[in-house]
Amino acid sequence: MTLEDLLPAGVSIENLLVAMSGISVLISVLAIWFSLLHRDVSSKRAKTIADQRRSLRASIMTPTRREVRLPSLTMMHKVVDKLKLLRSAQAKKVGLKLMQAGWRSNDAVVRFFFFKLALPFAFGGVSTFMLYGLEAYSLGPAGRVTAALGAVIFGAYLPDIIVRNAAEKRRTAIRKSLPDALDLMVICSEAGLALDATLARVAREMEKTAPELADEFNLTALELGFLPDRRVALQNLALRTDITVLRGMVGTLLQAERYGTPLAHALRVLSAESREERAMRAEEKAARLPALLTVPMIVFILPPLFIVLIGPAALRTMDSFGKM
After folding, report:
1. DSSP state of 85
2. How is this protein situated with respect to the membrane (predicted)?
3. 200 and which of 60, 221, 233, 283 could share a cystine (Cβ 3.0–4.6 Å)?
4. End-to-end CA distance of the chain, in Å?
C-alpha cells in the first residue's frame, strides 16, 4: 500500500504538498503577526475585576431580589434554557471545573453545555458525509461505522478535554509563581497591612509576571471586602485553585484569623515549603528524563549508529562472497 492509496480520490501527492506548503506559510505569517501584536491584558483584567466587584455588591446588597438571568437570548442560551441544563445536578460541577480553568461567567457554563450537545452531532455528521457521501476513504462497513462512532465520541469528550487541559495549565502556572507571592505576602504582613490589602498589593505587583495568581488574589481580596464571612472568601480561593500549597495557605490564614497568631511567620514557613515542593518537582522531572530518552534513543539513534558501524563491513562481506 502506497501513500497515493491512502489519499482521497482526485487528490494527488503534488496537491497535498501544495496544500501543506500553503498551511505552513499561513501558520508562519500568523505566528509572526501574533508575536508582534501588543496585547494589553491589564485593562481587560481590570474590567473583569470591576464586573466581579459589581456582581458581589449586588449579591450582598439585594440578596432576595437577585435572580439568575441569562445575559442575552442567543441560540445557545435558548437551547440550554429549553433543555433546563443549568438546573441539572451537573451544572454546579461544571461551573466549578470552569472556574478552575479560569472561566467564571454564566456564559461559560452555557457555552460548555451547548458545545457538549452540538459537537457530537457535528463530528458525526461530518464523518458520515465524508465516509458515506463522498466515500473519501475506502473502508469496509465495520470500519466506517467504527470511524463514525469514534468521531461522535471524540466530539462528546472534546469540551471536557479542553477544560481539563486549561485547568491543569492554570494550576501549573499558579504553582510556579506561588513561592514568590508568599514572599511578598510575608513582606506586606510584616509591614502591617491587613489580609485583603496584602492580597491586593501582591496581585498588583505580580500582575505582569503571574496573571493567573494575580487574578485569584484580586478576587479573594474583593470577596474579603464584600462577603460577610471571611472564611467563605478564603475557602473559595482553595476551591477555585485546587492546589495543595494554597489549601495549606488558606488553613494557615483561617487559623491566624481565628486565634490571632502571627501571620508573617506562618507565611514564611509556607513559602519555604512551596519552594521545596517546586525543587522536588524539578528533581522528579530530571530523574524521569533518562527513562523518557530511552525510547527515542533506541528508535532514532541506535539504527543509524548500527548502519554506520556495521554497514561497511557488511558491504565488504557481500562483495567478497560475490567474488567467490
Report:
1. -
2. Multi-pass membrane protein
3. 221
4. 38
